[in-house]
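Entry 14: structure prediction run for Glycosyltransferase. Input pasted below.
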Amino acid sequence: MRVIFVRSNPVDPDSRVEKEVNSLIKAGHDVEILAWDRSSKYIIKDSQLNLEFGNVKIHRFGIPASYGGGVQKNFWPLFQFQIRVFNWLIKNKHRYDVIHACDFDTAFISNIVSRTVKKKLVYDIFDYYVDSFNVPQKLKKYIVYQDHAIINKADAVIICTDKRQEQIKGTSPKRLAVIHNTPARIEHGFQLNLETNITKIVYVGILGEGRFIREIVEIVKKNPQYEFHVGGFGEYENYLEKVALEFSNIIFYGKLPYHKTLELESSCDIMTAIYDPSVPNHYFAAPNKFYEGLMLGKPLIMAKNTGMDAIIEKNGFGEVIDYNQESLEKALMKLVERKKEWGEASTQMKNLYRDKYSWDEMEVRLINIYRNI
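Run finished. Output tokens:
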């Protein structure tokens, strides 16, 4: 089949999109991507995304907007993005058979187009919209109504954990698949040549509020026995560049391709996947870092009442904290004290990844969706 993915970020990188696209190419499908570049202003730029099983055309729309700005701040840019997506999909309707829409902010317009031009629609819910983003109260009921209507009309719906079925309660998808956001296994991960006598904390991802990045920086600044290796993109980039120049045990890498992210995480000691439990969606979250930690066998720090924290606590795969800096500091000390246990825990984590969450299994589920539609 010919598939067009639609995503409201630049896919530069986007690990879940890249994994799914790569798996579909491997299965013989032709794939292109529509994406939103919020950092520049231009009509459209075409380039290629180089993946393991082939190169994919990616068409980016340059519409300046902020990350994490919510619907109110980004209403006009989001509206412009919808119009450009609509126009491209209508103009190029003979280039695709399936629209693979990622989240409600692309599914709304994709649903309209798919029904207009008689194309299949796969609705991939990375994050349930009203629980994840700053949506004005007046709009919430309307968005939930529209979201549920799309779920019911789509040819297939994808969610990223079994727990997320609670979020879409009351809907009746034609086909529903759970595809965990787990990384593809790396058989021979390259190890970076880092200092071995220092405990290395690592985070690579969106650099913004609510992920405890500043809190980790404050702890590491006053504790030379730690290093903080941090990469990604977002509103904290300038802040991290400055603090990394001031403190030698804070190392900022900027934006990293996914294989480099895994190399860095594999070379460090402790991973963090800390999200604000007051955000409803975080209770249902399936953080990339959780799955990456399992695959790499690295102890994780997570906040209580956020997705997958019970697995960490039950199995002793790291520490679960209250959502404050003091609790984080205590958790780091506890993990260092338990260093002798890391080897055994690492083996158990890798086994759990292999038995329950491997991308090989997720790939089969994805390919079956396309086979069935």
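Notes: The chain is about 45% helix and 20% strand. Will compare against the previous run tomorrow.
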